[in-house]
Amino acid sequence: MESASRIYIAGHRGLVGSAIVRRLAADGENNLLLPSRESLDLTSQAQVERFFETERPDQVYLAAAKVGGIHANDTYPAEFIRDNLVIQTNVIHAAWKHGVRKLCFLGSSCIYPKLAPQPMTEDALLTGPLEPTNEWYAIAKIAGIKLCQAYRRQYGFDAISLMPTNLYGPGDNFDLQNSHVLPALVRRFDEAKQRGDATVTIWGTGTPRREFLHVDDLADAAVFLMRNYSDEGIVNVGVGEDLSIIDLARLVARVVGYTGEIATDASKPDGTPRKLLDVSRIHAMGWNARVGLEEGVRSTYDWYLAHAADRRAG
Ligand SMILES: NC(=O)C1=CN([C@@H]2O[C@H](COP(=O)(O)OP(=O)(O)OC[C@H]3O[C@@H](n4cnc5c(N)ncnc54)[C@H](OP(=O)(O)O)[C@@H]3O)[C@@H](O)[C@H]2O)C=CC1
Ligand SMILES: C[C@H]1O[C@H](OP(=O)(O)OP(=O)(O)OC[C@H]2O[C@@H](n3cnc4c(=O)[nH]c(N)nc43)[C@H](O)[C@@H]2O)[C@@H](O)[C@@H](O)C1=O
């Protein structure tokens, strides 16, 4: 039987979108709208309007965005601010206009000030200057939060905003230049092991601290909040624990089986010194992350190995 709710997952081929599809499918949701990128370019207002008018989704998970790690954010500031502003404005407006019942917007922990007190509570938003390497992306994400809040206040549109910490898992981007640190290190250590390299050099000083959430936990939180939360306040989604980048590198090296040296390269940017979310708000609602970091890195490495041949072919 077809589920009653028509659910559109924007960005369903990406890390987060594909995890939300898996999570909803596991619950028996089989009325998912998954248009191809070729048939629906979300930067085109006309295409977005036509899609919503024709398909009439009931719910929307907005997981389509221009996304990347520290180097990509710093190198393509125009694309990061423009694409994200345009995609989210097109989708949020069309969703409201065509009667969507509920929308989930995904922000990021980088919306908080560079030197926000740790762990960062939701109230830290707009209390200080942003981290320069990703301020373009962060400004777009803050505008997305404000769009959701404004459409709720003026039109009563039920749009909620989640702030995930750094994510990883199956379906991640393993590009050496443009990805986030965790997938980059998985690939770097795996390739170094294959070649028998004596040293792997990671970017920056290794001292910044980051928090990592498995994408299946994020998808679970997004579905949980869509079912149980309806307010304008943003909600942090993380594990509430962080580690230094050098310790992450040691963990990934151990999982991959790389036994050489690990060096640091201080000429590369560190980014924000620490980014740890205060997750007491979502814990108080009854949600907790489940996947431990080592277990998550192991399963991500397995996924990477199973798909490395596809990547080489592509
Ligand atoms: N990854 C992370 O660590 C974090 C991610 N987030 C947020 O989660 C959300 C999803 O990120 P993530 O899954 O990692 O990113 P990915 O890059 O893995 O996926 C992004 C998706 O958006 C789609 N997309 C991009 N531009 C367009 C467009 N113009 N038209 C249609 N589709 C488009 C891509 O399509 P295609 O597959 O065709 O390229 C892809 O499926 C984003 O809002 C991001 O900001 C928040 C915190 C951390
Ligand atoms: C999710 C989040 O992601 C980004 O912020 P970030 O956390 O700084 O990003 P990152 O994962 O790329 O790096 C984390 C740390 O790790 C170090 N590092 C070491 N070696 C590699 C390496 O090989 N690749 C990368 N990418 N980083 C490396 C790197 O120097 C930095 O100190 C933003 O785009 C932001 O917009 C955002 O939302």
In short:
The protein has helices spanning 15-26, 45-55, 70-75, 77-97, 135-155, 181-195, 215-228, 245-256, 280-284, 293-313; strands spanning 7-10, 32-33, 59-62, 102-106, 159-164, 166-168, 199-203, 209-210, 212-214, 235-237, 243-244, 261-265, 274-275. The protein has 314 residues and is an alpha/beta fold. Catalyzes the two-step NADP-dependent conversion of GDP-4-dehydro-6-deoxy-D-mannose to GDP-fucose, involving an epimerase and a reductase reaction.
Walk me through the structure.
44% of the residues lie in helices and 15% in strands. By secondary structure, the protein is of the alpha/beta class. The protein has a domain of 212 residues: NAD(P)-binding Rossmann-like Domain (Rossmann fold, 3-Layer(aba) Sandwich). The strands form four sheets. It has a six-stranded parallel beta sheet with strand order 2-1-3-4-5-10, with helices on both faces. It has a three-stranded mixed beta sheet with strand order 11-8-13. The chain has a two-stranded parallel sheet with strand order 6-9. Helix 1 links the parallel strand 1 and strand 2. Helix 4 runs parallel beside helix 5. The chain starts with 6 loop residues before the first strand and ends with a helix. The mean pLDDT is 96. GO terms for molecular function: GDP-L-fucose synthase activity; isomerase activity; NADP+ binding. It holds the Pfam family Epimerase. It comes from Thermomonas carbonis. This is GDP-L-fucose synthase. It catalyses: GDP-beta-L-fucose + NADP(+) = GDP-4-dehydro-alpha-D-rhamnose + NADPH + H(+).
